[in-house]
Amino acid sequence: MFINYPHYLIPKLCGAMSFLFNPMFIYLLLSDMKLHLGSYRHLLVSFSIFNMLCSFYDGLVPMGVHDHRYAFVIFVSEGIFSNFSQLGQLALSIRCGFITVTYAILHAHFIYLVLNRSMLIQKYFMPYGFILTFVYCFLHMMLWTAVCDFFFYGDLERKTYIYDSFKELYNLKLFDFNMVIAIYWEGSNEAVIRSFIGVVVVSASSTYSMGLFFVLGHKIMKNLKAHCKDPSTPTTTLQSSHSADSRSDMCQFDAMYGCLVWSSLSSGLCAIYLAATIAASGFPCIDPVAIIIFLPCLRKRLYLTSPSGMSSTTAPPNSLFKIT
Asked: Any stretches that span the bilayer, and where are they (predicted)?
């Protein structure tokens, strides 16, 4: 189904840029031996791979959003999973799970930066810590996937509740679509209770993620002040890059989550919902750009030539970067 040109074109453009910027970022990480990142290099590479996977899955399962009175809806707008099936329903739930994996990966980054001086991290992160990071991210995804599948499942009752408004807006029969639906009122006790349980679970997950960011961020800044007096040093620069990185993800996540859940308790905000679904496709291409911009040793390698005629493949001596 066609909603409008921004909804159709912007996610595809962001996906294309993701497959341009993330391989570039991986190349810069792996080819520059002046970046003494240790095991942290693997985390950064895995983050970029996840970004591309997220963009691919966003193209495979494009999301649309609808609301009606006391319900909000996420549905597959086009593609091979647009027609209703159990497999398509599961694919949509997994797509919702991708949203929270972004935070799980950032958790892993921040935890590594807090504990990177520990001998335990330096000795056992590869492969045990890396495997644990993967399991942690997978559990985050499965939590939201399970919530969408068990508590927000678009059954006949919920689809019937929003049928008229969906038909009026899109002139299509919603029974043919894969949907996750939360209904807060004007439904059966079972549907309303299940919806509220789902909202409580994802709200608790989001609150935990936010709280962990504040705690770890405070710890990182405290460590920086204790070990580094110069704000222009490479370590401080890395923290700035991750600060910008996390802020961009938090803004996009909050736009998606806040608009889809809490705003629908009071009124219909279709334009904001639409903007949120578009924003959700933007972070895979924004993340690598944010890190490249804030790390001078990576940023300078993008220049074709420097004033002194230095090749773009060679970083200047003062760009040496090390995490110890």
From this structure: 6-30, 42-60, 92-115, 127-153, 195-216, 255-275
